[in-house]
Design brief:
Elements lengths: L23 H4 L1 H5 L2 H15 L3 H14 L4 H13 L3 H11 L5 H30 L6 H24 L4 H20 L2 H70 L17 H9 L16 H10 L4 H15 L1
Helix pairs in contact: 3-4, 4-5, 5-6, 5-7, 6-7, 7-8, 8-9
Length: 331
């Protein structure tokens, strides 16, 4: 692994350092010893970088990437070549890809150079905005943007220290950026500071509101799902109850059909009308007369007997005639 630029030349106003490119044949010796092909395709770019011919180095790394497009080491070296040419945006993109490397040391260096490239790009944009606005006091919005980008640089260096806590260069750069943020905030007019605080509070309130709305929406969805489940359970319960009632009714109907209801049979003599006194007298008077032949007894139901009685003709006229005839006989 190549060493960083010597810290002996640093001062409080010194520009942040960047790691030199990782020479693949030195950094991942064990890996490339087993794969000479990867070592060979990286060699031309590494040699050009040593000679400080960064444009040629970038060209050679691009050619190597055509053969190994997913190599985190090639992304890192190409980003370093762009960084040396002050193409910080392109360098940031490549360093960002290198942070996803499986190798912890590789990812730590990628985060370190990503923080450096971000700082350089942010400083450049801020100075251009101040120059356009006619001074730092007139570029309040630019100051706020610059502070946000510096805070992101701090996160990059913190990621480096998570993986390599002993990295003194990352600690130095981290402390230097924090001081720069304090100086910027101190130089801002009170009104701008208040606006920035208000803006930060507004952003925080908006985030809280969005989170609250998201939670409410989730709660509504959960509640709707619970009500749906409850309705389905009620429907299932009603259907089961209805099926049970139908089964019970069917069973009751079957039991009644098996038992049956016997039809009442009338006893002999039942259903015959009781004779009136006149009829009884006529019967006594006609004892000597020829008796009609007895009809066979029929067995009828009680309801038929009532119908027959209701339809019988009246007997009173016959009784009167019989009485008149008896009177004539007395004469």
């Amino acid at each position: 692994m190549s060493n960083p630029i010597s810290l002996a030349h640093r001062s409080k106003s010194h520009v942040l350092l960047a790691w030199s490119p990782m020479f693949l044949m030195l950094v991942v010796t064990a890996s490339f010893a087993a794969n000479p092909f990867k070592r060979d395709i990286a060699e031309p770019g590494n040699q050009a970088f040593k000679e400080e011919n960064y444009e040629k180095a970038a060209s050679e790394y691009v050619k190597a990437q055509d053969l190994e497009p997913l190599s985190a080491e090639l992304n890192f070296n190409l980003g370093s070549a762009y960084y040396r040419q002050d193409e910080y945006d392109r360098a940031m993109e490549l360093f960002e890809k290198s942070t996803r490397a499986d190798d912890i040391s590789m990812a730590a260096k990628a985060y370190y150079n990503l923080g450096n490239a971000r700082y350089k790009a942010s400083k450049r944009d801020y100075e251009a905005a101040v120059a356009t606005a006619g001074g730092e006091g007139a570029a309040g919005g630019a100051v706020q943007d610059y502070v946000k980008k510096l805070e992101q640089c701090i996160k990059d260096y913190e990621e480096t220290l998570k993986r390599t806590p002993e990295d003194e260069d990352a600690k130095y750069n981290l402390e230097m950026i924090r001081r720069e943020i304090k100086n910027l905030m101190r130089r801002q007019p009170p009104q701008d500071q208040q606006q920035q605080q208000d803006q930060q509070q507004q952003n925080q309130d908006q985030q809280n509101q969005e989170q609250k709305e998201s939670e409410q929406e989730q709660n509504q969805q959960d509640q709707g799902q619970q009500e749906e489940n409850k309705e389905d359970q009620n429907k299932d319960s009603e259907e089961k109850n209805q099926q049970q009632q139908e089964q019970q009714q069917q069973q009751a109907s079957q039991q009644e059909g098996e038992k049956g209801t016997p039809t009442p049979q009338p006893q002999p003599g039942e259903g015959e009308p009781t004779p009136t006194p006149a009829q009884a007298a006529n019967l006594e008077e006609g004892q000597g007369e020829e008796q009609p032949t007895a009809m066979p007894t029929l067995t009828i139901s009680e309801e038929m007997a009532r119908n027959l009685l209701d339809n019988l003709p009246e007997q009173r006229p016959r009784t009167r005639r019989q009485q008149q005839r008896n009177v004539e006989k007395d004469w």
